[in-house]
């Protein structure tokens, strides 16, 4: 027979008491690794914009009104010039993030990508106004 553990049993909290190391400048790491700048968009944590992030934003914003779900916050439809290749990429992204019962359109993908891009650009602009340390992509706020 195995011993039963009490549900009320508490454990001593473990605290990290090690010394915090100083931050390393992004440029120093890039130089050491021979890296080159990338044009990838970054989310609020400084990582590349991912399909997961796009899907999460879609799930958050989609509202069903009886027909095709619409994106909350969208007040109308605007004409945005796109190449056939760009539209095909949007259709591919829509297919990549689709799942049973969740079939976003290429237009909905475009709307979310535009919203995330504008949010990122705004944060970058604010960071640049605050100082050079924040403008290097090291934003810590996760708010939107």
Flag low-confidence runs.
134-144
Spatial order of the strands in the main sheet? Answer: 1-2
Structural class: mainly alpha
Report on the biggest sheet.
Answer: 2 strands, antiparallel
Helical residue percent?
40-55%
Distinct helical segment count: 5
Radius of gyration: 22 Å
N/C terminus separation: 53 Å
Globally, the shape reads extended
Mean pLDDT: 75
How big a fraction of the residues is strand? under 5%
SSE string, helices as H and strands as E: HHEEHHH
What does this structure look like?
The protein is mainly α and 144 residues long. It has a domain of 84 residues. The chain is built from 5 helices and 2 strands. The relative contact order is 0.14.
Layout of helices and strands, plus pairs?
Layout: H1 26-33, H2 51-61, E1 62-63, E2 70-71, H3 84-97, H4 106-130, H5 132-135
Antiparallel strand pairs: 1-2
Helix pairs in contact: 3-4
Quick synopsis:
This protein has about 140 residues and is mainly alpha-helical.
Top keywords for this entry?
144 residues; mainly alpha; two-stranded antiparallel sheet; extended; disordered C terminus
């Amino acid at each position: 027979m195995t011993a039963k553990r009490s549900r009320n049993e508490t454990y001593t909290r473990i605290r990290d008491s090690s010394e915090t190391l100083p931050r390393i400048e992004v440029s120093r790491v890039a130089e050491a690794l021979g890296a080159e700048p990338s044009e990838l968009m970054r989310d609020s944590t400084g990582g590349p914009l991912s399909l997961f992030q796009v899907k999460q934003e879609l799930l958050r914003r989609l509202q069903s009104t009886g027909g095709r779900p619409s994106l909350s916050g969208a007040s109308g439809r605007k004409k945005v010039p796109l190449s056939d290749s760009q539209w095909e990429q949007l259709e591919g992204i829509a297919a990549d993030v689709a799942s049973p019962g969740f079939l976003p359109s290429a237009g909905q993908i475009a709307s979310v990508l535009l919203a995330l891009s504008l949010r990122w650009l705004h944060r970058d602009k604010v960071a640049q106004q605050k100082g050079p340390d924040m403008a290097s992509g090291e934003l810590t706020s996760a708010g939107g």
